[in-house]
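Researcher: Please generate the 3D structure of the following complex. Treat every line as part of one assembly.
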Amino acid sequence: MGSTITEKILAAHCGRETVRPGELINAEIDVIMCHDVTTTPAIDLLKTHGNLHVAYPERVVIMPDHFVPNKDIKSAEMVAKIRRWAKEEKIEKFYEIGRHGVCHALLPEQGHVRPGTTIICGDSHTSTHGALGAFATGIGSTDLAAALATGELWFKVPETILFKIHGSLQKGVFAKDVILEIIRRIGVDGALYKAMEFTGNVVEEFSVESRMTLCNMAIEAGAKSGIINPDEKTLDYVQAHSNKIFDVYTSDPDAEYSDVIDIDVSDLEPMVALPHLPSNGKPVSKIGDIPIDQAWLGSCTNGRIEDLRKAAAEMKGKKVARGVRMIVVPATSDIWRQANREGLLDIFMEAGATVSAPTCGACLGGHMGILAAGERCVSSTNRNFVGRMGSPESEVYLASPATVAASAIAGKIVNPNAYKQD
Amino acid sequence: MKGKAHCYPRDHINTDEIIPARYLNMDQERELAAHAMEDIDKTFVKKVNEGDFIVAGEDFGCGSSREHAVWALRGAGIRAVIAGSFARIFYRNCINNGFLAIECPEAVRKVHTGDSLTIDVKSGKILNETKQESYTFTPVPDFALQILESGGLMKTIIQKVKA
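Model: Done. Output below.
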């Protein structure tokens, strides 16, 4: 019996030939990413438990992103504490304002994600990095402290569900629509504790950035990780961003899966997930008139350059509807500069949108676009839980960047023009 | 382990509801505790006494990895969460903190708010003294019990690093 890519990576990181689902292992961690919200408690845990130090500072990458540029004194104190600690522990990879970005967009962009590696972060959307064939998973602050102190962490080897995504996507339908459809089908706990492995011609045809969108939202189905077997596109991307060597693992043809789910996406329409669960997906054409107060474009799910391009294509020469606030948040500093060079930021601002510095911001109700009671936002983010972007009486509708942009122009949630024209 | 039940039988209670992100510029247990479950039940903190339990539906703790959710509940006095099932990262965070997360769908169906419960981890039973019933729960895995008994993951990490 063969192994999945996830089992192979985990086996290689605990010094074993093979591992099987359900086994408990201690795995070496190659990359430990730290952001502002979950790292300060880990620092406190290390200091209050025998003043433990970072075992491998070279494996640590610090990327404050949630409340940066700092929104208030408390969040400024948090990052100040992380800066002091990084200096004490001689951690050199610290992405300060100006080089900063939303951690899951920044980590691969800056070459820290390589196939076959293990990556953890005190953030649920760490599953994003499986798009490059790494085992990447979100953990809490105690796990983070443990990994910082020892360079390893306990895991239960997950079962894997294989998603075969095939067919031919219609114009105006994107990776975000595909993952919203998958979560609609299996539910927010449909892959609980499991790895979601994505394959099929649609995944092969996706850009690396679109694959990141797919893996990013694996956690919204309860999964431990999302993962895609590396191919030429993966290797091209990684070699363009990193000069470090790596091992490529791929799933064996006879690997064992807990389930295999075939999805033909040829008839898939642009999707929107209604409040208050990511699994409440419906085709945009079936939701009727839903006027919006805000349109938010950004996040680790959909704040990359291809997302901004798709949104700009919808907005070029048009105006954001009266009464709608559109906020564009390029996910990293490099993406911001690239969007600026391509004239995308001008398109957004001439349409009447505002463009912010990179931040997680309002995606998690932090800052930069918080909603008041009774307000409604269409957002390219990943969660639409009660109060996620502000008031518990506000509403978040999840959609692709193109749908968010088209909706900002229309003043209500509508299909992208790219879809309608076809 | 004995306390009163506070029932929130809905499925998918997420960590944004357990501790909203607007409070994540804080990380101290007592500060977070004041806002525990605020977006589900504004009176939660007032109702809970030290040693009480939450009883909830499936997939409790889904969403964000914020361990602040465990700390907020523990700070508010909650000793254990009994649910149909748990989201993965929340479950890890419970184990790592030596905080009990018990899977017991039967209790979720039968327990009502105010019932007096006793949890016996060793025998894997919950005794409902109010209703004179007993429910068997999925045994807490051995490795989790070891972490619980040693007082959390960091205690075992110290031993490992200092050894």
